[in-house]
Amino acid sequence: MSVASIPSPRVPAPSEVHLSQALLDRIIDTTSAVHAAGLKSFGLLVADPSHPRFPYTAQDVVFFDPRKNRRNDPAHRPAFEAQGSYFRDYDDAGFVADAGELLDVYRRLDDEGVEPVALFHVHRRQPANFSSIDFRLHNPAYAWHLIICLRDAAHPVLRPFAVRKDDSSEFGIDPADANEGSELSYCGPEVTALRLVAEAPAVALAS
Questions:
Q1: FRET label pair with 81: which of 75, 110, 131, 165, CA 20 to 30 Å apart?
Q2: How many CA atoms lie within 13 A of 178 on its CB side?
């Protein structure tokens, strides 16, 4: 999936990211409903580029249509299955956004004057880890990535990760790969866990 470039962060990489409680509730409610329908969620977190914490914050979310997941199209399925037995056993392991939908989303974000700051996706069976395939597929334009674990649907786990990946790092997957175990945690120094801070509404803070 190609993505637009994101301006360099105006603040040093922090130890935490900030989302409003209302946004977190929306993310959990929507991904849980999609999960209950037997589908996988994937999308973008977006923010106002003038925000002082940009890009380590988000004010809104974009959910790609899970029914348009192109992961199992003939052009993509062999590359996913080359990532190991997990990806051969589960055809919902992985997400490829529909190109037309992706273009429509970026046009809308441009019109609204907001920027995508992070990717997020759901792990339906895995823990909330940032895996080796997640690192391979992470676009270096994004400073962080949110993993949502729903293997215990009654107790969602959300974990953000800072990802320092330069343009020369390996990107993408290929049918010629033989990457057994790529669903396991990526252990390189480029990935570090962040703390997720839920911000209360301004009215609640004032009171």
A1: 165
A2: 0
